[in-house]
Amino acid sequence: MKTARRVLRFGLLAAILAFWTVVLRPQALGGPTLYIVVRGSSMLPTYQTGDLVVVESAAAYTVGDIVAYRVPGGEIGEGHVVVHRIAGGDPTEGFIVEGDNNNSPDPWTPRLADIAGKAWLMVPGLGRLIAYVHQPIIAAGLAAAVMVSLMLARPSPARSDGRTDRWRTRLPRRSAGV
């Protein structure tokens, strides 16, 4: 029974890892996915500030697709990622993109190479949590909490009667001479 559970756990872990590798791995690690935290109001009511948009690269893009693109080189804002809807154009001459809440198209005309991908999934408000956790003081506090938890949960040494407790759940007692 224990062996069957171990095999099942290993299989589940392998399936999750394969899914992450194929579908959710970030572009920075060679994957097809880009994670974007929405800032601003240009895509209201579709996306609001603080939403997390998951973008997947695609072979082709058409009018009406919501895409994330990098501002082309040599332009003001070069390299910034913008999430807007394709309103016209083509991959060779450049797409005309516009925010749903904007009255005019963007000043940039990204080509196919500038587009990071098409909006695949949106999680409302999750971007706010991610931005909060990325603050240095919060990240340091979380790291410290993990380290303290690991120190308190480490295996305990052998007891005087020869047995060992599997995990220590409280701080060790101090001896009178220390």
Instruction: Label the structural class.
Output: alpha+beta
| Anisotropy-based shape | elongated
Q: Count the E strands.
A: 6
Q: What do we call the CATH topology of the largest domain?
A: Umud Fragment, subunit A
Low-confidence stretches: none
Strand order across the largest sheet: 1-2-6-3-4-5
- Which percent bin holds the helix content? 25-40%
Could you please describe the fold and organization of this structure?
The chain has three helices and six strands. Strands 1-2-6-3-4-5 form a six-stranded antiparallel β-sheet, with helices on one face. The chain folds into two domains: 32-125, Umud Fragment, subunit A, CATH 2.10.109.10; 135-171, no CATH class. The two termini are 48 Å apart. By secondary structure, it is an alpha+beta fold. A hairpin with a 3-residue loop joins strand 4 and strand 5. The chain is 27% helix and 22% strand. The chain has helices spanning 2-24, 126-133, 136-152; strands at residues 33-37, 52-56, 66-70, 81-90, 94-98, 115-123.
Layout of strands and helices, then pairs:
Layout lengths: L1 H23 L8 E5 L14 E5 L9 E5 L10 E10 L3 E5 L16 E9 L2 H8 L2 H17 L26
Antiparallel strand pairs: 1-2, 2-6, 3-4, 3-6, 4-5
